[in-house]
Design goal:
membrane; transmembrane helix; 14 helices; mainly alpha; 338 residues; transmembrane; AI-2E-like
């Protein structure tokens, strides 16, 4: 009774900062191999954890912060250009877009119908303006809530350090408590949380990041515009099976339409090699080796988690489904041991 009351009160106190603490735990999982590597030269656990967090800030957080502003500006600029094009009666589509096989003339007809249909044009431009306002409001809210955002970031970093430094002891305590409270019925399902988290981090997040980083120089060499925006889109779409093709296929068509067939073939071949290798070999290897649950279950967990919990659901969703699957397997073994 007393423990239950204390747990409820503790949750009530930390609830406003539960999300950054969960992110800290996830980051600790992701950074644990780096921490083990650092410990070879810096055996002190405190200094190893501190150096790991410092490297994370220097190599990940700082570049992401520097990239966030230009990406937002590029999205704003492209949306503004589209709105201005629709509102300008004399503006015409680029020739390469009109000359696209199969779909070029349909795009031209759609643009013409939009410009001649006042009601439809007003609706489209109104939606674009609302998106522009939303982007602007996001920047304003970020600026106005900078102090609160920095506090959450600090808590996440402190949580990452704490989980790196004390994580093993904390997990052993949780395991002992669950074992004494419910025995193997609870301990076994909890045991799938670490490998599932690692599977998501390495099998989805890092492979998607690798695809984006490998696609960026290819986009640059091929001369495709808006490299930063397209690389970000490749990272996001790569979280899903064959998702990166949604970005690089239109870029290949653009190269063909602008009179660069050899570049288009090389660009497409590179992306097929990178995306295919990641999708069919690297991603299943990481997810299957660490989590031992079907990839479809991971994918459903990612999609459902994003829809239900937001960005952090990328990890929470698959963890919930993997725990459910482990409970299901345990019940089947209990009911039919032979």
């Amino acid at each position: 009774m007393l423990f239950g009351l204390a747990t409820v009160l503790a949750y009530w106190v930390i609830a406003p900062y539960l999300e950054p603490l969960v992110w800290g735990a996830i980051m600790a999982f992701a950074l644990s191999p780096i921490q083990r590597f650092i410990k070879k030269w810096v055996p002190q656990p405190f200094m190893a954890a501190l150096l790991t967090v410092f490297l994370f800030c220097l190599l990940v957080l700082l570049p992401l912060t520097l990239l966030a502003v230009p990406i937002g500006q590029e999205i704003f600029r492209e949306t503004l250009s589209l709105r201005d094009f629709l509102q300008d009666p004399s503006a015409t589509l680029p020739k390469w877009l009109i000359n696209l096989p199969f779909i070029g003339h349909k795009i031209a007809l759609l643009a013409t119908s939009l410009k001649t249909n006042t009601q439809m044009l007003t609706g489209v431009t109104g939606k674009l303006e609302s998106h522009l306002m939303e982007i602007g409001n996001q920047f304003l809210s970020l600026a106005s809530g900078l102090g609160h955002w920095l506090i959450k970031l600090l808590i996440m970093l402190l949580g990452t350090f704490a989980f790196l430094f004390h994580g093993q002891n904390v997990w052993e305590q949780i395991t002992r408590l669950s074992d004494s409270a419910a025995g193997e019925n609870l301990t076994r399902p909890l045991g799938v949380i670490p490998p599932t988290t690692k599977g998501i981090i390495y099998g989805l997040f890092f492979t998607s990041l690798a695809q984006a980083l490998l696609a960026a120089p290819a986009l640059k060499i091929a001369g495709v515009p808006n490299i930063l925006l397209l690389s970000t889109a490749i990272f996001i779409t790569s979280l899903f099976p064959i998702g990166a093709a949604i970005i690089w296929l239109p870029a290949t068509i653009y190269l063909l339409a602008t009179g660069h067939p050899i570049t288009a073939v090389v660009f497409a071949s590179w992306n097929i090699l990178v995306s295919g290798g990641m999708e069919h070999f690297v991603k299943p290897m990481f997810i299957g080796r660490t989590s031992h649950i079907p990839f479809l279950m991971i994918l459903l967990g990612v999609l459902g988690g994003l829809e239900t919990f937001g960005l952090i659901g990328l990890f929470i969703g698959p963890i919930i489904l993997s725990v459910f699957l482990e409970v299901w397997r345990h019940l089947l073994i209990t009911e039919n041991p032979h």
